[in-house]
Amino acid sequence: MKQRKIRTLLGILLTVLMIIPVVSGDRPELFERFEYDLYDLRLRQFLSTEQDPRIVIVDIDEKSLAAEGRWPWNRSKLARMVDQLFDHYGVAILGFDMVFSEADQSIDLVELKRFLNDNAHEANATTLLSTLNSDVHFARAIMDRSVVLGYLFDRSPKNLQVGHPGNAVIGDDPVLAALPIPEANGVISSLTALQSESVWNGFFDNPMVDSDGVYRRVPVLQRFEGEYYPSLALAMLLALFDEDKVHPIIETDFTGEREALVAVEAAGIRIPVDQHGAVLVPYRGPQGSFPYVSATDVINGVVKPEVLEGAIILVGTSAAGLLDLRVTPMSNRYSGVEVHANILSGMLDEHIHHQPDYTLGVEIIQLFLCGLLLSIVIPRLSVFLSTIITLLIGGLVIAVNLYAWQQLLWVIPLGYTLILISVLYLFQQTTGYFFETRNIAQLANQFGQYIPPEVVEELSQQDQAVQLSGESREMSVFFSDVRGFTHLSEQLSPQQLTRLMNIYLTGVTKVIHEQRGTVDKYIGDAVMAFWGAPIKDEEHARHALQAALCLLAILPDLNQELAQEGLPPVDVGMGINSGLMNVGNMGSSFRMAYTVMGDAVNLASRLESLTKYYGTPLLVSGDVAVMVPEYLYRKLDRVQVKGRQEAVDILEPIGLREQCTQHQRDAVTLFSKGVQAYTQREWDEAALRFSDYLCLAADDVMARIYLHRIAEYKSTPPPRDWDGVFSHTSK
Q: Which residue from 258, 351, 428, 531 has the highest number of Cβ atoms inside 10 Å of its Cβ?
């Protein structure tokens, strides 16, 4: 019990030690990587199997570069693409995952040729330059259309300032100012010439890369000069619904003091964000979860109209040389423009996983409950059951986590909890093995010579420790003695006597151990053993009786072994009694021994001594016969032994009733009738019965004893209060 308490306390301590890094926010990097892997696994397991046709990516791919020339293209060409998308295909909105921060110095040969054909006689340099200004063409194409231009925020110390990010969606806010929302020092946006009141702007830089280099979070807000600006996806959502403001949703903790950003509302859509103003990218699937069309096909009008009509368009690049590939949970080469497409799709569907501000508290409670439960349960169960319970707890945690993921879109950290469960299981099993090994060693040191190894192991696994200080128990005790040992010892040399006793005592001890008995001591040629301690045994009387009968059964084999070594045979006398006894460590401060004492023990010793008188190798008390009724017994006598006032029945076990022959049953019945007549003072009847019994068993000592007593009582009748009890005056 003490060891289990120690293991429980150690498990709780280990749980607390593992919770500390969670509270402090200083988790080991290895554990963080495991958490990322589990997040990615959940993400990949519940992907959509269909493309989202609402959002189409116009891709500046390898095909487009081969057809239209190297990037960057002349913006007149981009203007023609914009015109195609709105005028020919009727798209809903167009966003550029790119920035136009520098004036276009290239010449569009298509425009040049057209100008020369149309103005062959009036051409001059000024007119030519004005006509061929591709930035003007591009500005005209995007003006008064639902177009979102991309830009970059600069967080370097250089404070780069190229253009302006457009209109802020949240003004100066003291609550947001206290939060760790990314703050830019500068901006790199599109040319002023491309800016207008009708054109939206959104940043497309992705500053939140996890420690393993994977894009999982993307900010939807960044702070610049005290105001807050939208990401490309958020700006496209606002432009789609013709909104110009975003409303932060602030919640306070249970104390009412700490405020936290939990979401932003745009166009009536609630977008869950973290304290950094970032969203978990709701990846629909691997790259290609949205329709891709080649930019050159759009320019040339060969795309099927139904693909683009009414669609949300994102213009980006997948060509390897344009360096817009990201490492994501989906792939190590994932198009950056599709990251924005996933975010926009998740916003429209209001299907974005998130971690509420109280997630940390939930994780701590989850860790503590799992740790506490395992620390309490595992030390009290076997390895098999503790393994099953651990798997069930782990499975329950995973099931709850997956339910929250699917139904609530709530990301509950899982990795650290699974690590805690695994560590606690291994720790508890290791400490359990250590304690068990130590217990077995200690018990083996205490009892190994006296009880079988399997009982030692059982002792180590039981709920309560062995009570060594002493206690009273219902037990059975066994005594055996070699007949005529003094005469044997006189005949043999010391070496021969030692060999004889070793062979004999080995056989006796083996039988006792096989019947789960405890060898108390060897007293010369005598053996004392008991059943019912240190492990309680409800069938102690049966096991003791079986041990004695087994010893009688193997005695011929032992004598044969002795004869092979030139040693004389042995004969034994055994006595068994059951009753209340005191058991525990007894002795002095110099030497202690685990033994039994009491009147019931003394009676068993007397019974062993009386086997010589009654001429039988085994005697048991009436208490034994009552506790083991399946055996057939011959009641030999009712006696009062020396040192004991109370009379006791003495019986000789014959064997299992179902295995006894009819002859044996008839003999016992005949003997019992003789004893009954003897007790009732019917001397002649008793003498007749015992004489008849001698006809069945001519060498029976007890029948002759009764005939001798009957003859004495006939001449000298016993007193009137005589109840058939015979008093033994010697041991």
A: 531
Which band of pLDDT confidence, cut at 50, 70 and 90, is reported for residue 363? very high
Q: 429 vs 3, 4, 381, 386, 434, CA distance in Å?
A: 13, 12, 10, 9, 8
What is the DSSP pairing of strand 259-266 with strand 247-252? antiparallel
What totals of helices (H) and strands (E) does the chain contain, helices first? 24, 26
Supply φ then ψ for residue 547, to 5 degrees. Answer: -65, -45
Residue 278 structure tokens: 């970032």
Q: What is the mean pLDDT of the chain?
A: 86
Q: What is the DSSP letter of 192?
A: G
Q: Which two structure tokens, joined as six digits, stand for 316?
A: 């980006």
pLDDT, tens digit, 9 for 90 and up, residues 83-130: 999 999 999 999 999 999 888 776 655 655 565 566 554 555 554 445
Non-local (6+) Cβ contacts of 482 within 8 A are 488, 504, 525, 526, 570, 571, 572
Longest dimension (CA), the chain: 171
**Cβ(596)–Cβ(533) below 8 Å:** yes
pLDDT of residue 441: 52
Query: How much is the pTM?
Result: 0.65
Whether the predicted pLDDT of 518 surpasses 80 = yes
Give 237-262 as a 3 state SS string. Answer: HHHHCCCCCCEEEEEECCCCCCEEEE
pLDDT of residue 360: 87
Query: What is residue 120's three-state secondary structure?
Result: coil
Coil vs helix vs strand at 555 = helix
Would you place residue 457 in the very low, low, confident or very high pLDDT band (cuts 50, 70, 90)?
A: low
Least confident of 493-502, 582-591, 658-667: 582-591
> 3-class secondary structure for 331-394?
CCCEEHHHHHHHHHHHHHHCCCCECCCCHHHHHHHHHHHHHHHHHHHHHHCCHHHHHHHHHHHH
Could you report the per-residue pLDDT of 706-728, keeping only the tens digit for each? Answer: 999 999 998 899 888 888 888 87
Tokens for 366? Answer: 């989850």
**Tell me, what amino acid is at 403?**
Y
**Residue 111's pLDDT is what?**
57
Q: List beta partners, residue 186.
A: 154
DSSP 203-249: E-----B-TTS-B-EEESEEEETTEEEEBHHHHHHHHHTT----EEE
% residues pLDDT > 70 (the chain): 88
Contacts by residues 629-635 (CB-CB < 8 Å, ≥ 24 positions apart): 630/656, 630/657, 630/658, 631/545, 631/655, 631/656, 631/657, 632/656, 632/657, 632/660, 632/664, 632/665, 632/668, 633/668, 634/667, 634/668, 634/671, 634/672, 635/671, 635/672, 635/675
Secondary structure (3-state) at 277: coil
Strands 631-640 and 726-727: parallel
**Which residues touch 390 (CB under 8 Å, ≥6 apart)?**
374, 378, 421, 425
Bridge partner residues of 595 (DSSP): 584
Per-residue CA distances from 516 to 2, 467, 543 (Å): 26, 18, 7
Q: What is the pLDDT of residues 280-310, one digit of tens each?
A: 999 999 989 999 999 999 999 999 999 999 9
